[in-house]
Specification:
Elements lengths: L4 H6 L5 E3 L8 H9 L4 E4 L5 H14 L4 E6 L5 H10 L4 E5 L4 H9 L3 E6 L2 H10 L4 E4 L5 E2 L5 H11 L4 E4 L5 H9 L4 E4 L13 H8 L6 E4 L7 E4 L2 H11 L4 H8 L2 H6 L24 H18 L2
Helix pairs in contact: 2-3, 8-13, 10-11
């Protein structure tokens, strides 16, 4: 029912991408998603090139299926990672925080499919002109760095604006979300928060428990005053951040408060002063499952949702 020409060309069974979550999306999670029939993603973020190379090689040992790498284009070593994915034979690159145009010729010459994450129609059009193979239209329901438009508003406008495939992201956590996204005209979905509680996800158990206990109103957006808003689950850190913003604190003070807080939550399990990035869909996530169980449940649920209203 959810056949996608684009994902078939990638050699992927289910039209679903695992989000490139910084400090979270490693070889363990990416390979498990790919083995389950989705497209796993390793997040490069600001990690050293040697670490990313090792993670890519680990993933190759764990799966013979396609997987990709997410490159944050504003990172200091983005150019090094852009070359590295070519050297390591990565099949797919997703990008964020910048324009991948300067690397497009290099990636195309190595047969890499490029899918930038976008939060507006204008950016989607720019990415298409730059040579992107598809775009991931991400609504503000997502965890982590977000734009302003909701998924329901953004996705159909992007679908109408570009001729390349569109993947929907933001607020998709079960079969109903998958079905709704496809009704908006996409060829696939990207999911992040649901995979945080996958058994193969290596984040700290405290982080997983925080996701599983989340209610619908437990996420909040911080950092709007800096121009880089981030959606996280509420805790002492988010309250301190909001307090500083209300007091018109300097960007330097805000950056100092947030420095290192994501790995503090992901690796150390600090859910008080760590940054617990998660989407609004966290309130729907109630059980830890394998990546295979998550993907199969989501697409079975999507089929049931559509059949119900035929």
């Amino acid at each position: 029912m959810f056949n996608s020409v684009f994902f078939k060309e990638l050699g992927v069974k289910y039209p679903i991408i695992q989000g490139g979550m910084a400090w979270v999306a490693d070889s363990s999670l990416a390979s498990a998603v790919s083995n389950a029939g989705g497209l796993g993603i390793i997040a490069a973020a600001n990690a050293p090139a040697d670490y990313i190379r090792d993670e890519i090689r680990k993933a190759k040992k764990l799966t013979d299926k396609p997987f990709g790498v997410n490159i944050m284009l504003l990172s200091d070593n983005a150019e090094e990672i852009a070359q590295l994915v070519c050297e390591e034979g990565v099949k797919v690159v997703t990008t964020g925080a910048g324009n991948p145009g300067k690397y497009m010729e290099l990636w195309k010459s190595h047969g890499i499919k490029v899918m930038p994450v976008v939060a507006s129609v204008a950016l989607a059009r720019r990415m298409e002109r730059a040579g992107a193979d598809a775009v991931v239209a991400e609504g503000c329901e997502s965890g982590g760095h977000i734009g302003e438009l909701t998924t329901m508003a953004l996705v159909p406008q992007v679908v109408d604006a570009v001729s390349i495939p569109v993947i929907a992201a933001g607020g998709i956590g079960d079969g109903r979300g998958v079905a709704a996204a496809f009704m908006l005209g996409v060829q696939g979905v990207q999911v992040g928060t649901r995979f945080l509680v996958a058994t193969e996800c290596t984040i700290h158990e405290n982080y997983k428990k925080k996701i599983l206990a989340a209610k619908d109103i437990d996420s909040v957006v911080t950092g709007r005053s800096t121009g880089h808003p981030i959606r996280v689950l509420k805790n002492r850190l988010s309250r301190q951040f909001q307090k500083l913003e209300k007091e018109n604190a300097s960007i330097e003070d805000l950056e100092e408060l947030g420095r290192g807080c994501l790995p503090k939550a992901v690796k150390e399990g600090d859910i008080v002063m760590g940054s617990i990035m998660a989407g609004q869909i966290a309130g729907l996530v109630k059980k830890e499952q394998s990546c295979s169980e998550i993907i199969e449940e989501m697409f079975k649920g999507a089929e049931e949702a559509i059949i119900k209203f035929r």
